[in-house]
Here is the input.
Amino acid sequence: MEQVIANGFYLGAQYALIALGLTLIFALMNVLNFAHGQMYVLGGFISYTVYGQLGLPFVLALLASGVTLAVIGALMEKFLFRTVIKRSLREESTMLLAAATAFFFDAVILLIFGEKQRGVPKIVKGVFNDGGIIMPYDRMLVGVLALVFIAAFVLYMQYSRVGRAMRALAQDRVAAQLMGVKVDRYTMIGFAMGAMLAGIVGGLLVTITGVNSGIGGPISIKAFMMVMIGGAGVVGGAIAGGFILGMMESVGLTVLREYGDVTYLVIFAALMVFLSIRPNGLMGKPWG
Amino acid sequence: MINRRSTLKSMVLGAVSALAMAAAGMPSAEAQNKELKIGFVGVTSGPAAAWGTSNVRSMQTRAAWINETGGVKIGDATYNVNIVTFDDQKDPKRAIAGMEKMAQEGIHYVVGPNVDDGAAAVRPVAEANGIIYFPYAFPKALYQKPASNAVLGMIANYQSGPAIYKYLKENKGVKTIAFVAANESDPLSQRDGGVEAAKALGLKIVAQNDTYQNDTRDFTPVLTPIVALKPDLLVLSGVAPANAPLLIRAARELGFEGLISTETAQDAKVLEEGAGEYANGFISVGGASTPEIASDAMKEFVARYTKMFGEYNDESNTKVYALEYIIDTLKANPAAIDNVDEFKKTMDTFSAPNPYLKGDAKLSYVGTTSFGQKRQLAVPMVVNEYKDGAFQTLFVGTVD
Here is the structure.
């Protein structure tokens, strides 16, 4: 059972990091970024190229993934989402745009990086084994790094000037604007940060799970599930949603294994019941 | 002295000369040739894109090779081969649309689909429109009477599985076996076939209900309870090439010391990148490119494929064959070019040299034992063992 709990914590840490960027963009712009999974994939392929193919240090690869995705996110916000939000009163317009960018990224990634599963050399070799828990050292490192990134993100949002401005925007866009917050600027920074988080987690996890061009959609679906559990637009909710999903997956795959692949059936059924009782998730607010 | 002006002048003169030659009625060999359209309906996007992409690229490589060398002579006419492709995204509804598109284009020979439900879905369209298709799917009903238009393009798991398990039982002392499969029709049916074969051989099955979502990225939770059972052999039933290295790595990191095998084709580079030395000893079924058996033609095919697409895919060792069979069967009976009944008649007696294997191996249609009629390509059943970035031939089997 110790192994199952350890697996759940590890999965939870990586899931929480995946969900953070998605919930940040939703909080700031009320945009469901369907391309979040594709951004994760792109981050993974950039790390694969820099670290796996060019042989440069992994830290540099992670930096390249984060910076590239941040730039892409900023450009997407400025030239696509900002334009659509200003021209259209219907919220579906941004959803359709997000879906279109997801398909676009899928096609471009397939074209550039091909159809094969890709992986990189392990960043740390060896496996921790105390007789009860078995955990490869690279997973432990990635789990710790995920926790560090989550903590850094929370602290940044809480105490930095940019973070405070973004939180003000998320709470009340008009009031923030009246208080002198430059809405366009901080929205762009927020979108760039959300995309950067997707790139970093993609770059981080390529060392464990590799990457292939077709996994963007499934990653987005899992991220949406975590956000729904925790509450859309709430950072703490995304973290809680990630850990809950990770633990449910780990426990379900062990306890329910004799019944075939029913773990996700149970998770989805539980989610439906949960959302019918708490439609805003664990920490979400009715107004967003 | 060569300068920019003289270079430009030469280019302009060259272009004018070429146009003048074309205008003067000097047709190239290709321009005289007729067009032979061969279709492909399969998955070239999403998580399973590797299956269909290796199909399409094999066909395109071979077609370009044929066209470059003057086309293929069938009866009195010479044809250039044109591959018409359709991505069904692993969706049976789209597979039907793809097969309908092939029918509208007047195509009679189609490679694909890549999975069971797609192959079953296109059957009515293929039969109604006189199309012979070559699925990479294993349901026997597709190939048994009254069906007659589908031809299995590879070795089925119920053919390779028993041979692999028997070999491992006799040579590696395997006594216990565990199965894990993705929760999709192909892997589940392959798992069920594997379980039957293992039972028939007297192996003790310690796990057979464990499944996973095909888009799983971390298999540690899936494999933790199976590894605890310590089977001698872990079978990854119908595993997609993208998932194989992740499963192998997770099992080894959890301390699994037994053998790992699958009945599907895999790619050595993907295994090397995704699992590294953990993949050593992994057993899979391949085609014809291991050095021990590959002919010069196979080596040239690999070189051309690599030049055309940047990187070879080892799954193409099997997928190179379908187009070869179609063309050689049409050469054997030119009346089949637009008449699939003629094609079916020829299948019963067809035999031609296998260009991709050393020695005097033959291309022929098989499947009598499994399907009661010849509705399968005689692709060599090469059971490979992965070792340090390459496949080594473990043994070669045949299907009748």
In short: Residues 4-23 of chain B form the longest helix (20 residues).
